[in-house]
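User: Reviewer 2 asked us to show a designed sequence for the structure in our supplementary figure. I'm pasting the structure tokens here. Could you produce the per-position amino acids so we can include them in the response letter?
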């Protein structure tokens, strides 16, 4: 098989961004584009899409799943994984409800992007209050003490630059519910073949029907 990689950055840029990684393990990028949209990839052209630890970074995960379905051939497979809230540095964040993600999708469909960005502020605050301190503790670094003004300014900067964080958090059950919803959101859409747990992850396999 031939595998092609998608990233917003080039291989050289990723080597600079991630100095802790072995450069030999960083692959060449074939499509430098928004992986949530896959603009340059034709409809119904791919046998599979693999997205590990990507969907949680999307403010509108149902919209992203629809975009990934777009590029799959009939019978093509989507393999994806997300970290589970209870087993990752998101612990304490709370699992995002399906209703919340459906509302995010509907806002995007109606073009109400300002409201979607306003809702994202809650996710930035949760990242600041829960996920980032947990991540720092995992790394053996002390949590960063800040004044209320500094914290508010940091959240505002993240929102202004649309910084990618874990906008949504999952359990195995909530991930399965999301995939089932997205699979039936488009008539003749997809079939969820499997959802399972593996370590800290929930893993899903979805097949495009037609």
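Assistant: Here is a per-position design you can include in the supplement:
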């Amino acid at each position: 098989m031939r595998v092609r990689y998608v990233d917003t950055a080039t291989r050289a840029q990723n080597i600079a961004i991630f100095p802790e990684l072995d450069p030999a393990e960083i692959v060449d990028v074939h499509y430098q584009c928004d992986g949530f949209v896959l603009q340059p990839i034709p409809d119904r052209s791919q046998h599979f899409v693999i997205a590990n630890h990507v969907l949680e970074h999307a403010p509108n995960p149902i919209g992203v799943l629809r975009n990934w379905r777009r590029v799959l051939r009939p019978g093509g497979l989507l393999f994806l994984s997300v970290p589970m809230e209870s087993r990752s540095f998101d612990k304490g964040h709370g699992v995002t409800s399906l209703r919340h993600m459906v509302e995010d999708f509907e806002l995007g469909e109606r073009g109400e992007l300002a409201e979607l960005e306003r809702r994202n502020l809650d996710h930035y605050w949760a990242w600041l209050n829960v996920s980032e301190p947990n991540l720092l503790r995992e790394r053996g670094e002390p949590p960063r003490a800040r004044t209320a003004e500094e914290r508010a300014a940091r959240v505002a900067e993240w929102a202004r630059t649309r910084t990618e964080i874990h906008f949504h958090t999952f359990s195995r059950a909530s991930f399965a519910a999301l995939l089932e919803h997205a699979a039936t959101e488009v008539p003749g859409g997809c079939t969820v073949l499997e959802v399972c747990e593996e370590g800290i992850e929930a893993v899903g396999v979805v097949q495009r029907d037609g």
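For the response letter, you might also mention the following. The first helix runs from residue 11 to 17. The CA atoms of residues 116 and 134 lie 26 Å apart.
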